[in-house]
Amino acid sequence: MAQLNFKGKQFVQNHHLVVPFHELIPQKGKSLTEKVSLHDNLIVHGDNLLALKALLPTYAGKVKCIYIDPPYNTGNEKWKYNDNVNSPMMQEWLKNNTPVDKDDLTRHDKWLCMMTPRLKLLKELMHENGTIFVSIDDVEVHRLRLLMDEIFGEEYFISQFVWKSRQNKDNRNITGVSIDHEYVLCYGKKIRGSERNLSQYSNPDKDPRGDWVSANMVGLLPAEQRPNCHYDLINPKSGINYGKPKYGWRYDKEAMNRLIENKKIIWPANQDGRPRRKFFKSELKQEYTGFSSVIGDGIFTKDGTAEIESIFKKRVIEFPKPTLLIRELILQATESNDLILDSFAGSGTTAHAVLQLNKEDGGNRKFILVEMEDYSDNITAERVRRVIKGYSDKEGTGGTFSYFDLGKPIEIESLLSGKNLPSYNDLARYVFYTATGEEFDDGKVDVKRNFVGESENYEIFLFYKPDLEYLKNTALTLDRAKTLGKINGKRRLVFAPTKYLDQEHLDELRIDFAQLPFEIYKLAK
C-alpha cells in the first residue's frame, strides 16, 4: 500500500493515545430534555479531538454512521492548527497560532496533522459494521484518501462519491473551469443500495404467480465467446422460428427450455418479433440495487443555505450542507435504531437529517454532534431546538437532546497531588473504559459497594474519594474486600490507592488488584 508522508506525521501518529480524557459537563439550560444524559441525543461544545476522546468510554465501537465535513483547506477558511503536540516543530506552529491560508507553505501538513488523530479516534468510536463519510473537495481529496487508506484500511474503501453541489456555473475561476462538484469519501464494509422501482411490475394477464415485468432475453456476447447461447428459438406450440440475434440469447438451451416449460416466455405473434421473459417480482433476490457513485441528484449547496435562512430568517452560516444530502447518506449506512456522529457539526445539518428521518419512518436513531466554535449554542443547538419544535411553516419533528460542555482533563497524575480531583463517576468511567474498552453505564454504579460495572470477564470496583485524604482512607483491606459482595464466578478487578491484603487472600476472594494511579492501564489492550 502506498504510504502518505507529511511534515509532523511522526508526532501525530499516536497522539490520540496520549490525549487526556476530559469531563463532560451537562448544561441543563442549553439542553432540550427533562433529564440530561450521555445516552440522549448529544451536542458537545469543545475541541473535537478532546471531545471524541471524552466520548470513548461511553461510545467506543457503538457509532454506526459517521459523517464529517472538515475544513477543505482551500486557503480561504482561516482555520487554525491548535493541537498541543509536544515537539519543537508543532510548538512553533502553536506559537504562531495564525490562521492557515493560501500563503502558508505548510498548510497541507498542518491539515493532515489535524485530521490524523481525529480520524483515529473516529475509527475507535465506529461500530465494526459502521460506515464513515467525509466531505472534501479537489484540494485535499487525494491526500485524504491515502490517509484514510492507512487508518481505516484500503480494503474498506467503498467509494469516492461525487456530488454536483453547484447548480449554476461559476465564472470567477481564473482557470476558466467552473468547479461544480465535491466528493464524499466512504469507508466501511458495505452500504445498503438504492430502493428498487417496483412501479413497473403489474399483472395484466392475472397470472396466479403475481406481478411481473417483460424482460429482455437477447444475449451480450458473440458466438465465438459464448457458442452455447447461439441457437434458433422456436415456439413449441406455434412452430414459429424466431432465429437467433447477433449476440445470441441470454440463456443457454437448457435454461431456456426450463423457462418455456414454466410458461415464462412471452411469444410474439410473428417471427419478426423478439420473445421476452416474464420476470416476476417474487423472483427478486435483493430488495435494493446498486447505489450510484453520483449522489445528491438535484440537491445543491443553495438548498442548504435556503434551509438556514428559513430556520433563522437570515444567513447565519456560510455554505451549510443540505439536509437531503446527509439524509441520503444516513439511509445508506443505518437502521432505524442506530447512532450517527458528526464531529464537525457546523450548523447542525446532521441532527436535522436524523430527526427528520425519525419523523418520517418512526425510527429511533440518535445523533452526537461536536462543535468547537462559539456558535455551538446559538446556531448549532438552536437549529436543533427549532427543528424539534417547528419553524416557519414546518411542523416540529419532536425529540430531545442533551447539551454538554467539555470540562477539565482527568489527569491521573493529579491523584497523587490532590489537585483537580475528578468526581467518582468520572474516574469510574475512565478506569472502566481503559481496563475493558467496553461501554460504561453510569446507572450501574453503586458507590456504597464501590462497584462501577461488569465486563465479560470482570466485576470492576473502585475505592476512591475525591478529596485530599483519599490516599489514607481508601486502601483495600480485608474488611473492605468482604463488602464487594458474593463471588459470582467472575474475577473482581479492584482499583484502589493501596492494599493491605496478601496474595493468598486476594486469590481466595478472586481479586486482581490495580493500584491507582500507576496501574490504570493494567488490563488495557
Kindly report the name of the CATH homologous superfamily of the largest domain. Vaccinia Virus protein VP39
Q: What is the rounded distance between the termini?
A: 26 Å
CATH fold-type name of the largest domain: Rossmann fold
Mean pLDDT: 90
Form type: globular
Tag the structure with descriptive keywords.
525 residues, alpha/beta, Rossmann fold, ten-stranded mixed sheet, four-stranded mixed sheet, disordered C terminus
SSE layout:
Layout: H1 9-12, H2 15-18, E1 22-26, E2 42-45, H3 48-59, E3 63-68, H4 88-96, H5 107-125, E4 126-136, H6 141-153, E5 157-164, E6 181-187, E7 194-195, E8 212-215, H7 253-261, E9 265-266, E10 276-280, E11 288-289, E12 294-295, H8 301-312, H9 323-333, E13 339-342, H10 349-361, E14 366-371, H11 377-389, E15 390-391, E16 394-395, E17 402-409, H12 414-417, H13 424-436, E18 451-454, E19 458-462, H14 470-473, H15 478-482, E20 491-496, H16 503-508, E21 511-515
Parallel strand pairs: 2-14, 2-17, 3-4, 3-13, 5-12, 13-14, 19-20, 20-21
Antiparallel strand pairs: 1-17, 4-6, 5-6, 7-11, 8-10, 9-10, 15-16, 18-19
Plain-language structure description:
- This protein has 525 residues and is an alpha/beta fold.
- The protein has three domains: 9-192 and 292-408, Rossmann fold (3-Layer(aba) Sandwich); 212-283, no CATH class; 410-515, no CATH class.
- 29% of the residues lie in helices and 19% in strands.
- It has helices at 9-12, 15-18, 48-59, 88-96, 107-125, 141-153, 253-261, 301-312, 323-333, 349-361, 377-389, 414-417, 424-436, 470-473, 478-482, 503-508; strands spanning 22-26, 42-45, 63-68, 126-136, 157-164, 181-187, 194-195, 212-215, 265-266, 276-280, 288-289, 294-295, 339-342, 366-371, 390-391, 394-395, 402-409, 451-454, 458-462, 491-496, 511-515.
- Strand 20 (491-496), helix 16 (503-508) and strand 21 (511-515) form a beta-alpha-beta unit.
- Mean pLDDT is 90; it is low at 519-525.
